[in-house]
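Input structure tokens:
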């Protein structure tokens, strides 16, 4: 009977704390025991499963899909958003909203943010960020050359400068094309003082925000002119490439794919991205599912923000292929 009596009192303490909302000090005074004893009883209530924690996921959230992504791909965090339809426009809008909220909630003071400029999804994220206090972020660094077609270049420049303004940071633009005409032309461009100063900040980036691209470039990137020709893209696919992050390519197993074309890209190398403390990837859609799968296997991504349709495809592919 001694154990029953003990459990009875533990149950009463648990009721007072969890159901009646009383503080531990108040319970201790009421029952004429020490606060340390109350604390031990509350811990014991959990051990004996007198108190059980139940999490009820709100409508529109997908904790099981997120858990599956985390476990299957060894990812620290995954955010899966609800979408009305499996279409690029809807997916980009919802991912952008969720990415903005997560960034605002987790951004640390003094961060140096690296951002890929030619991503429509990241642009949607920036559109949803609320202004923060000045000095919250030190720099926002453009990690892929931002010069290109003038009608599109303004979007890339605004993405970087607006994110800097919203986070109270100083923008550091990469005033060069994303893809140089030749390796020799790239070396000339890297001699520019401002280009060199921006690229020197790559090693100091604490948070990188990246998009994930399929071999077929996004409409924004295609319009910018910062792309390889169809024949050059064939050279990547022949080498096994399935997708890219800032024009750095990888295969379905997450291995970096390098061809001579890699020497023409002016931007952050995959090796440098892998050293960043936190990398947030925003991507979704049927056309990008295989690319996202490969990107997750590179080991560079810490947080994936994607949509419910893509999340299910990723998990289905995991269950049907080695």
């Amino acid at each position: 009977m001694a154990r029953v009596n003990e459990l009875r009192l533990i149950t009463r303490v648990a009721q007072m704390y969890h159901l009646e909302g009383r503080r531990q000090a108040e319970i201790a005074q009421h029952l004429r025991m020490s606060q340390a004893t109350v604390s031990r009883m509350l811990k014991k209530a959990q051990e004996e499963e007198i108190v059980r924690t139940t999490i009820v996921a709100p409508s529109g959230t997908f904790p099981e899909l997120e858990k599956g992504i985390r476990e299957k791909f060894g990812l620290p965090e995954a955010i899966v958003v609800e979408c009305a339809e499996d279409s690029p426009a809807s997916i980009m809008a919802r991912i952008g909203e969720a990415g903005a909220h997560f960034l605002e909630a987790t951004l640390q003071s003094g961060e140096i943010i690296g951002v890929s400029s030619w991503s429509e999804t990241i642009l949607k994220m920036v559109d949803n960020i609320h202004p923060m206090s000045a000095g919250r972020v030190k720099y926002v660094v453009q990690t892929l050359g931002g010069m290109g077609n003038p009608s599109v270049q303004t979007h890339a420049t605004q993405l970087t400068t607006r994110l800097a303004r919203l986070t109270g940071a100083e923008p550091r633009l990469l005033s060069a094309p994303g893809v140089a005409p030749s390796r020799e032309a790239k070396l000339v461009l890297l001699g520019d003082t401002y280009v060199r100063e921006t690229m020197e900040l790559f090693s100091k980036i604490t948070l990188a925000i990246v998009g994930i691209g399929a071999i077929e470039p996004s409409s924004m990137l295609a319009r910018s002119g910062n792309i390889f020709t169809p024949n050059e893209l064939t050279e990547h696919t022949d080498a096994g490439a399935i997708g890219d992050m800032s024009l750095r390519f990888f295969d379905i197993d997450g291995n970096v794919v390098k061809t001579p074309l890699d020497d023409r890209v002016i931007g952050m190398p995959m090796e440098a991205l892998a050293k960043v403390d936190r990398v947030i990837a925003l991507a979704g859609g049927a056309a990008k599912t295989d690319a996202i799968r490969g990107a997750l296997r590179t080991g560079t991504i810490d947080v994936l923000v994607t949509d419910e349709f893509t999340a299910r495809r990723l998990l289905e592919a995991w269950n049907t292929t080695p």
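The longest helix spans residues 88-106. The chain has a mean pLDDT of 90.
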